[in-house]
Amino acid sequence: MTCIEARGLRKAYRNTTALAGVDLKIETGRIVGLIGPNGAGKTTAINAVLGLTAFQGDLSVLGRDPWAARDDLMRDVCFIADVAILPRGLRVAQVIDYVQGVHPRFDRAKAEGFLARTTIQRKSRVRELSKGMVTQFHLALIMAIDARLLVLDEPTLGLDLIYRKQFYDSLLNDYFDGDRTILISTHQVEEIQHILTDVIFLDQGRVVLDASMEELEVRYLELVAGPDQAATARSLQPIYERQAFGRTHLVYDGVVRERLACLGEVRTASLADIFVAVIGGHQGERAA
Amino acid sequence: MSEPAAPKALPQSRLFYWSIRRELWEHRAVYVAPAVVAIVALFGTGLSALWLPRVLRRIEAGDAKAAMALMSPYALIAFSVLLIGMIMALFYASAALNAERRDRSLLFWKSLPVSDRTAVLAKAAVPILVTPVVIFGLVVAAQVALLIWSSLIVAASGLSPTLLWNYIDLSVMWVVLPYGLVVNALWQAPLYAWILVVSAWARRVPILWALAPFVILVMLEATIGAMARAAGAGPRTTPIADFVGNRLLGGLAEAFSVDGKASAAIDRIGQLNPLRTFTSPDLWGGLVAAALLLAAAIWLRRRREPL
């Protein structure tokens, strides 16, 4: 089943083009990382998916047009943004009351259960909570909603390592199942690469890579070559190269493992290296 | 895991109810400020009630003028609560669609299955429906409290409280006030709708943007009019100033004065003239304007992003 499908998705602001014709298809049950440099159009794409911004082109989310039917769509979609967006003047209990009041798929007992594991007080106002606690609270609300699609826009920005780890652990252990789809946008590539099933690289409003993690593992390899092999290794046209401790790290796109194995240590390239290789290459073109 | 069953929509009335509740949680001043004023007014009038035994003795001695003073504390309570209630409603409307963009909570509200129409109509309902109810409730509560307190003082002085009750008739006020509040709310609906539009549109100080065009026009009119009269050009007319005054306070004049033009205050129920009021083109024109402005506010809220 298809969860999100976009064809020719475009969005232009007065002076900039945020999305320059994006095509993508996200199947149900996937955890997709939407990755790109600042200004790549990630937030615009997410806003379009959530019905927060008008767009050109075709976009279908859970079979609906998000711009035409945002409130209807939001019964099945949850969203956590890059900064704390919970109403700061409300008390924790009031926020829970409100969500229970307006959301047909909210399970209050579940939310209370998640909150019981934290130090968040029902009577506290949201503004009195630390940034980490606000995110915990928001996550507790979201996890108590039986939604089909969860959209996270830089959800752990500004949180310390422990909160970030807890956040993704809860998401995987208590929330995710094969019926749900999660779309995460983030810069912190290393931290989420082990939970993703798919990645989409966005740069300058375009999709520059759209692949499953399995495909990436086969396609992108990293070779660590000693000085003697470096010249031979370079002749195989690596897409990215860096030096570390006198050895050369090279990333290859679509070169078979056997050809590299004789030149040094071969391993699956990390998402961060692939990101730098793919996007960095584009930015080089941009400069040229 | 459960089948992705088709989620059923909650009734609109329920979404509307919770939308209003959240407005009142976020903007407590809408009812707290009038409540504080009601308490202060009650305190002041309660102190003045200490003179009641002496006033009543003078009335008994034939001083008719003294009797007129007996109702004024009750009118003072009503007036002060009404005034602050209206002021808070204006401030509320100017913040209603602006504050949620400013603190980015707009993204949270929009991540829930509540339409922009429901959200904006709930925001319009606060000054138009909630404020009048708050005002009426507070006024009646404060007036009853004052009447009880006054009766106790009179009784403690050895006079019969019925003496006091002969002169204090709140029944007229308790009919005229809610009637007037309804008329005034309908009259001012376009005012609040206009401020909501500006609240959704302006980046900052929406109250200033909402009022500035009218202030500037009235000032221009006054300046030009003064010069025109100095040049001997015709009688003085100030259509813009009249329009602004009528839209701000015309509802109160319509509701609480005998002729609808603020000449004499209504003091008998028979003086109410709903037929005149509800056939007034000003009222209906205002309601049409309010509907158009609210549609604009909904349109803006749908498109506006956090600041």
Keywords:
heterodimer, A: 288 residues, alpha/beta, Rossmann fold, 2 domains, six-stranded mixed beta sheet, four-stranded antiparallel beta sheet, 11 helices, 13 strands, 34% helix, 29% strand, disordered C terminus, B: 307 residues, mainly alpha, 14 helices, globular
Structure description:
The complex is a heterodimer of chains A (288) and B (307). Chain A has two domains: 203 residues, Rossmann fold (3-Layer(aba) Sandwich), CATH 3.40.50; 73 residues. In chain A, the strands form three sheets. Chain A has a six-stranded mixed β-sheet, with helices on both faces. In chain A, α5 packs parallel to α6. With 288 residues, chain A is an alpha/beta fold. The radius of gyration of chain A is 21 Å and the shape is globular. Chain A has eleven helices and 13 strands. The C terminus of chain A is likely disordered. Chain A starts with a strand and ends with a helix. By secondary structure, chain B is mainly α. In chain B, α8 runs antiparallel to α10, α10 crosses α11 and α10 runs parallel beside α14. Chain B has 14 helices and no strands. The mean pLDDT of chain B is 91. Chain B is globular, with a radius of gyration of 24 Å. Chain B starts with 11 loop residues before the first helix and ends with a helix. Classes of the chains: A alpha/beta (288), B mainly alpha (307). The interface between A and B is large, with 40 and 34 residues.
